[in-house]
Amino acid sequence: MKLFRKILSITVLLLSLLCLAQQRASAQQVAVKTNALMWGAMTPNLGVEVVTGEHTSVHFSAFGNKNPYG
Fold first, then answer.
1. Mean pLDDT across the stretch 58-67?
2. What residue stretch is flagged as signal peptide (predicted)?
């Protein structure tokens, strides 16, 4: 019961801080991405997404594997 009260108190505190810390949001212009599932399959990857307009973006990605055919 004590553990539940502690978790509940921390959750309420964090949600209160989140509500108090609201500010105007602005979107990023460049994003760097990766895929954890591909890293788990030993296939490293990296992607970059660049905003080109109000509703458009361009995405470049690359991945590789040391032994692509087994």
1. 88
2. 1-21
How many Å is the maximal CA-CA distance in the chain?
Answer: 54
Average pLDDT of the residues of the chain: 83
What is the per-residue pLDDT for 3? 82
Phi, psi at residue 58, to the nearest 5°? -120, 135
CA–CA distance, 60 with 34 (Å, rounded to integer): 11
Q: In one letter, which amino acid is 16?
A: S
Q: Model-level pTM?
A: 0.51
**C-alpha to C-alpha distance for 63 and 38, rounded to whole angstroms:** 9
**51, 49, 67: which is closest to 59 by C-alpha?**
49
